[in-house]
Amino acid sequence: MPASELIAKTAVEIVALLKSGEVTTLDLLDALEARIAEVEPAVNALPTLCFERARAAGKALAARPPAERGVLAGMPVAIKDLLNVAGVRSTQGSPIFADTVPEASDVTVLTLEASGGVIYAKSNTPEFGAGANTFNEVFGRTLNPWDTSKSCAGSSGGSAVALATGTAWLASGSDLGGSLRNPASFCGIVGFRPTVGRVAHGPAALPFNSMSVEGPMARTVADCALLLDAMTGQTAVDPLSLEKPAVSFADAVAARRAPGAMPKRVAFSRDLGGITPVDPEVAAIVERAARRFEELGCIVEEATPDFTDLQMIFRTLRAMGMAASRKGLLATHREQLKPEVIWNIEAGLALTMEDIATAELARGRLYHRVRQFYESYDLVLCPATIVPPYPIEHRYVAECQGHEFSNYIEWCTIAYAFTCAGLPAISVPAGFTASGLPVGLQIAGPPRGEAAVLAAAALFEDIQPWAQHLPVDPRPPRG
User: Fold this and answer.
1) Domain total for the chain?
2) H-state helical runs in 238-309
3) Has 155 been annotated as catalytic?
4) Does residue 475 lie in a domain region?
5) What is the DSSP letter of 239?
6) Per the confidence metrics, is the pTM higher than 0.85?
C-alpha cells in the first residue's frame, strides 16, 4: 500500500490493517519517516525522532501471537516531550534538560507500550508545558500548518501539528489550562482532557496533583477513544489512577446511537456567563456548531454553570503547583527559565496558607455548583478557545475584544474553567474562519463522564465530519 494512502487513513483503519496482517509496524514507520521528511521542516512538530528504537520494538511485538499485541497492535504513537521515554532525549522544552536521556519511561509510556503502542517521536512543547504557544529555547517554534505564520497554541502543540500534517496517527498530550484543547482547536484535530486519574502518569513529584492530566489526541473521535483505551489502567505509581471502565471507550463511541445513549438536553454558552471575552467570529462558528445538536433531537438551551471565583482558584492552585515543582530550578537555573515560568513560580512562593485554603474551599464550592448543574443538562457546549490562531511572534494572547489579560494564561479561561471543576472536556473541529483557520467546539461532560463526552463528540462528527480535511500540507502565510 502506498505511503500516502496509509498516511491518509484513520488510526482505527490502521489498527485493523495491523490486526489483519495487511501491513506491519515497519511499513507504518517507513511511511511516517517519509512524511516527516516531506513536511516536518515547514512546521517543526517532532524535533526528536527514535525510529531505530521504534523498529526494534515493532519487530519484538510482531514476534508475539496476534492476541498478545494489545489494543494498538503495533501502532506508532508520538509522545509529548514532557514525558520520559527510556533511552530517548527528553527535554521538557527546557535548556536545563536539553541533553537529558532518561533510563526509565513514564508510566503513561509503559502503559501505551503494553497496549501495543510503538514510540517513534517526541513532540515539541513550551518549557515545562507552561504557556499556550509552542516554542522553547531548545527546539524553537512549532508552526500552525493551516498558516505557518500562526501559532499552533499549546502546550501540546507539537502533537496537534503532527496529527494535522500526517506525521502521526495518534499522539499524547497533557492538559492543565487547556493544553490539549487549545492546540486541537487551532489545528483542526481532536484533543481530549479526561478525568484526573483516568490516564496514570508518573512517578511524579506531586502524585496527588488534581489539576494536570495526560490525555489522547487524534484526527477523529473514534481514534481518540482508541488511544484513550490504550492509555487507561490503574497503577500504584499514580495514587489517583482509576481502573479501566467496564465498557471500553471505543465501544461507547460505537454505541452512541443506542437507546438511552443520546444526550437529551445540552447547555450552550458563548462565554460561560461572561467569564471571558470571545472573538465574535469564533462565537458565531461555535454557536452554529452547537445548534446542530438539535438535528440529533437534543434540546439546546443557552445556560452555563456558575464559575464564581474561577480566576482566584486557578491562579492560586496553578502557582502553588509551579512553586512546589520548580522552585529548586529557580534557585539554581534562573537565567535559563523563561519569564513566564519565573513569574509563575514567584507567584506561588508569595502565597500564604490563607490564600491556599481560600482557593481550595472555593474550588469545592465551584465543583458542587457545577455538579448540580449537570443534574439538569447532559453536556455543556462552548468555544474551546476564544480566538482563532494568532501570529506566532506573539508569546500569548494579550487582549481580546478590548479586554487586556492580566497574565500569560488568562486567555485560556474558557478551557481551565472545566479543569477547576474536574470535568472531562474535548475539543472537536467546529468549522473555519473566513481566512480558513480552524475553530474548535468544546464539549464538557459530568464528573467521570468521558464515555458521554466521546459519544456526543462522535454524534457531532457524524453530522459535521472533518476528517476529509486531513492531513494538510503546511500552508504559507496568505498574502
Assistant:
1) 1
2) 249-254, 280-291
3) yes
4) no
5) T
6) yes
Q: How far is CA 145 from the centre of its chain?
A: 17
The neighbouring-strand residues paired with 135 are 141
How confident is residue 343, by pLDDT bands cut at 50, 70 and 90? very high
Query: Which of these is catalytic: 105, 172, 179, 212?
Result: 179
Q: What phi-psi label fits residue 84: left (phi over 0), alpha (psi between -120 and 50 degrees) or beta?
A: beta
User: Using alpha carbons only, what angle is made at residue 69 by residues 247 and 92, rounded to the nearest 5 degrees?
Assistant: 85
CATH number for the domain spanning 212: value is: 3.90.1300.10
Q: Which of 277, 310, 275, 304 is nearest to 290 (CA)?
A: 304
With respect to residue 454, please indicate whether it lies within any of the assigned structural domains: yes
273: left (phi over 0), alpha (psi -120 to 50) or beta: left
Q: Name which of 421, 429, 307, 442 is nearest 379 in CA terms.
A: 442
- Taking alpha carbons only, the member of 379, 380, 383, 386 closest to residue 403 is 386
Q: What is the pLDDT of residues 94-133, one digit of tens each?
A: 999 999 999 999 999 999 999 999 999 999 999 999 999 9
Nearest alpha-carbon partner for 289 in 456, 470, 419, 451: 456
The residue segments making up the domain with residue 392 are: 3-469
Do 183 and 153 contact (CB within 8 A), yes or no?
A: yes
Burial of 63 (0-12, 13-18, 19+ CB in 10 A): exposed
CA distance linking residue 261 with residue 454, whole number of Å: 11
SS3 146: coil
- To which residue does cell 497492535 refer? 73
Q: Of residues 90, 123, 155, 159, which has the active-site annotation?
A: 155
The three-point CA angle 6-11-13 to 5° equals 70
How many CB atoms sit inside 10 A of residue 383's CB? 30
Distances (CA, A) of 259 to 92, 180, 393: 45, 31, 49
Count CA within 13 A, CB hemisphere, residue 440: 32
Three cell numbers at 453?
A: 463526552
Partners of 371 in the β-ladder: none
Residue type at 48 in one-letter notation:
T
**Known catalytic residue: 80?**
yes
The answer as to whether 479 is a domain residue is: no
Whether 20 sits among the annotated catalytic residues: the reply is: no
Give the residue among 364, 322, 325 at the shortest CA–CA distance from 344: 322
Question: Does a structural domain hold residue 446?
Answer: yes
pLDDT tens digits, one per residue of 459-475: 999 999 999 999 999 99
